Fold this protein.
Amino acid sequence: TTEIVQVPFTTLTLGGLERTAPDGRLLATASRAGPIRLWDSATGADLGAFGKSEGAVSSLAFAPDGRRLASAGHGEGGCEIRVWDVATRAHAASIPVGPKSASNLAFSPGGDRLSALCEGDIRTWNPAIGERTGVRKGPFEAFSLSGDGFFVAAVGPESAGAAIRLWREGFSRARWSAKVARVSGLWVSSVRRGIV
């Protein structure tokens, strides 16, 4: 049977973000005005807030094991990605990004890489120590990692001749590229058979 859980409306404000943990048991929420909060998906119980974020949160992502949560925020000092310990809700690592915002946070399937869209480029870091490990030059508007970590797909802006490009992770040359009129979402199959 399906059970609907009602979470208090005040936490999910317009323009807010929600991300569900990979096992579906936890929900993280953020809004421009408030902190990142953690919820029990089954009961709707408020499990508490994470530490202070750097300004308005623009993106959230759970690590595949559900033990870490990454958030991108933009404050007076610029954009920063923070990695949080989900069990304690404590701040675990900071990654300074620069003057502009980061979005589209995504962990690799092994949780050893964290990628974000920053100023049109796809940047990748080691989330444990905050060291940047790679950059794929854009301009891009969105990207997706395949569930097995084998491929990266990205779409460029219409002003740059909107095209979807697919790379094998670790390689610099695109495996293929296709012109498109418009893309509103991007997902790469983990079985290496397609892009939706």
